[in-house]
Amino acid sequence: MTYPTTSAERVAYANKIIASQTFSTLVGAQFSEISPTSAELRVPLREDLRQHHGFAHGGLLSTMADIALTFMGATAIGPNVLTSEYKINFLRPATGEELVARASVISGGKRQAVTRCDIFSVQAGEEKLVATALGTIVKSDAPPVKGAEILAEANET
């Protein structure tokens, strides 16, 4: 396999990896766009993903940030990566029909990348910024337990 070069190929590749991650599929995470410089992850805001005030649970926003930050790090330093750390700021309660995380690479080196992610709530087509995150993504020496064949195909190139 050649590493995905078109947007549609990158989205299909990323969603194939997401499909191998039980927790990511549990929350309904799906990439809608991925380019060499940005990624967009979407999650429908279901009732079971809300906390007792009716807002999206902070753990959901953190999960979205982690996924988007890590996938952007992979575009900078290669497909076998892990999150070393991230920080998230919750700016306002997340409500609406859907959440959208948009990530980008700030800096990429040989072994680590620094990435950022903004998360928006969407209601009737209107977006509101609800959280922002900054993360450090590192190359992993450990092979993945799930989705290994997907990464192996990408590493062949």
What can you tell me about this protein's structure?
InterPro entries: HotDog_dom_sf, PAAI_dom, Thioestr_dom. It catalyses: a fatty acyl-CoA + H2O = a fatty acid + CoA + H(+); a medium-chain fatty acyl-CoA + H2O = a medium-chain fatty acid + CoA + H(+); a long-chain fatty acyl-CoA + H2O = a long-chain fatty acid + CoA + H(+). This protein is of the alpha+beta class and 157 residues long. It has one domain (7-155): Hotdog Thioesterase (Thiol Ester Dehydrase, Chain A, Roll). It has 4 helices and 6 strands, in the order ααββαββββα. The chain has helices spanning 7-19, 22-27, 58-77, 148-155, and strands spanning 30-34, 38-44, 81-90, 98-108, 112-123, 126-139. A 6-stranded antiparallel beta sheet has the order 1-2-4-5-6-3. A hairpin with a 3-residue loop joins β4 (98-108) and β5 (112-123). It is globular. The termini are close together.
Provide a compact summary of the structure.
With about 160 residues, the chain is an alpha+beta fold.
Key terms for this structure?
globular; 157 residues; six-stranded antiparallel sheet; Thiol Ester Dehydrase, Chain A; 38% strand; alpha+beta
SSE map:
Blueprint: H1 7-19, H2 22-27, E1 30-34, E2 38-44, H3 58-77, E3 81-90, E4 98-108, E5 112-123, E6 126-139, H4 148-155
Antiparallel strand pairs: 1-2, 2-4, 3-6, 4-5, 5-6
